Every structure is written in structure tokens, then in C-alpha cells.
Amino acid sequence: MEGKYGARKREVGTVVAVKGELAEVRLPRGRRCEGCGSCCVAADGENMVTEALNAVSARPGDRVEVELPVTVSLRAAYILYGIPLLFFLAGLALGALLGGLLGAGGFNVPLSLIFGFGMTAFSYYLLSRRYSSRSRASSRYRPVVTRIL
Questions:
Q1: Are 82 and 75 in contact (CB under 8 A)?
Q2: Which in 7, 70, 72, 140 has the greatest CB count within 10 A?
């Protein structure tokens, strides 16, 4: 579904708090949400609480319709798995190249693995620096309260 804020999925939830232009909304936790956390502030087994742009001035206790970004889970999967995989492969190649240049002989494979895992850790460090404070800030990726039911 294409909404005002891009491709979005609709869910129904309950507003639990309002903080300025944001509303904390309790929503049922779906299968696609497990382990993501990109829009989730808090969660228990069956529900999650998310911060959503309060476009309709909902108040605590109101049942509301929330539009959630559809593309976020795909983008998050690419960022969390694809980029570190590329760094791992680059580290393997770098370790093998360095091992060949240094004449490491039998130490070539362990050196490649060390570089591979090192580059993977480095990629997660870079990603955490890049996305931690900004991931929930953009309205493009933020859930939006669109209607009071």
C-alpha cells in the first residue's frame, strides 16, 4: 500500500503515551518484527510499543490506525547482514593477499580468518556509529498514526 509517507502497512493499536508530536502506540507484535527493533521502543511476548508520528493528535487510550514502513525490514536485513558479509569477504581476500606477500605459508588460512572476522567487527562498529542515533529519526522510516478509530 502506498501512503503519504511511502509504501506502508496498516496496523491497529492503542496509544499509551503522547510526547510532543510523537505517540507511543502498543501494537500486536508480528512475525516480521521479531529481532528487528527498528521502530520498536519496548516489547513483550505478544505486543510491542513503538513511537509513531502523531499526525491526528491522538490521546492516551485512543484506538488508532498506524501505518508502518514496509521497506524498512528489507533495508535493515541488507544493512545488518549484507554489508558485514561484504566486509568479511574483503577481509578474507585481504588476509590471503597479505599472507601471500609475507610468505606466511601454512599460516595463510588463519590469517585470512583473522582479517575476515576483524573486518566484520569493524563493519558492525561503523554501522552502529552511522545508524544508532539516526535510525528512528527520519519520518521516512517512522510509523505514523493516520486515524483514530
A1: no
A2: 72
